[in-house]
Recover the amino acids of this structure.
């Protein structure tokens, strides 16, 4: 397969790789490949970078069958990887059964938790040192807003995360790509993404946040850019102090009322 990327896409990948030091000499990188548009584009893009970067690194891909259906078929994904000369693996994990046992409580968290766990175990067993996921800029912004709205915290995922327990490093090379760019690009390179087997696909809290951002952006075209800027460390200008616990407040009260030293 003659693989290539538009220069603008190559530049975005290079910015992420260089800025966050995502790929190093002799890395063994395992790609989390669902067969959807994002992970398929990531797989293709990393195959391009393997040819063009001045660093030697190995790639492989793994697809997790969450057992939401009885007819999950990875043949198309396997051929895609074969065309890119990327070793392909697949594993079945009964995520559907686990969600059912929990009576559907927080299915997205359960799915992500067990999917990541399976990939981490496989990576350790096979000697990989890095795992690549296809989270893009929209994912980061949506996670940032979800965290604020549903947990009261300003946080999102990082482009590069070291996992102490497993000694694996998670990288996200697509953090400078918008979702629309990926959607418009992947089919050009000879692969039509497979449909997600998730039974609640398009009905999640993330989808609600995605739609909220789109709705608010109609009146404020800069809203997305402002949210993206808010994820940076230097975006914090003025925030209230941390919440004081009971003991801390007692000390402050005594200091204020009775001039006691804190």
């Amino acid at each position: 397969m003659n693989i290539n990327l538009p220069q603008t896409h190559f530049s975005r990948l290079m910015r992420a790789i260089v800025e966050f030091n995502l790929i190093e000499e002799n890395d063994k990188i395992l790609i989390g490949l669902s067969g959807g548009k994002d992970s398929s584009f990531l797989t293709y893009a990393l195959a391009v970078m393997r040819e063009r970067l001045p660093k030697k690194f190995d790639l492989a891909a793994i697809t997790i069958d969450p057992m939401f259906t009885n007819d999950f078929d990875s043949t198309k994904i396997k051929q895609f990887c074969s065309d890119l000369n990327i070793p392909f693996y697949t594993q079945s994990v009964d995520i559907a059964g686990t969600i059912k046992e929990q009576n559907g409580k927080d299915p997205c968290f359960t799915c992500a938790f067990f999917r990541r766990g399976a990939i981490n175990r496989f990576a350790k067993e096979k000697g990989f040192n890095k795992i690549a996921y296809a989270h893009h800029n929209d994912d980061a912004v949506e996670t940032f807003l979800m965290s604020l709205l549903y947990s009261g915290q300003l946080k999102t995922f990082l482009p590069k995360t070291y996992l102490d327990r497993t000694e694996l490093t998670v990288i996200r090379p697509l953090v400078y790509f918008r979702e629309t760019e990926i959607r418009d690009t992947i089919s050009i390179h000879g692969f039509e993404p497979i449909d997600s087997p998730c039974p609640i696909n398009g009905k999640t809290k993330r989808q609600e946040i995605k739609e909220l951002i789109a709705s608010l952006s109609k009146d404020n075209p800069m809203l997305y850019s402002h949210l993206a800027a808010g994820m940076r460390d230097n975006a914090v200008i003025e925030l209230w102090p941390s919440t004081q616990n009971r003991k801390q407040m007692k000390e402050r009260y005594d200091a204020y009322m009775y001039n006691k030293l804190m």
Remarks:
- DSSP finds ten helices and six strands in the chain.
- The first helix runs from residue 7 to 19.
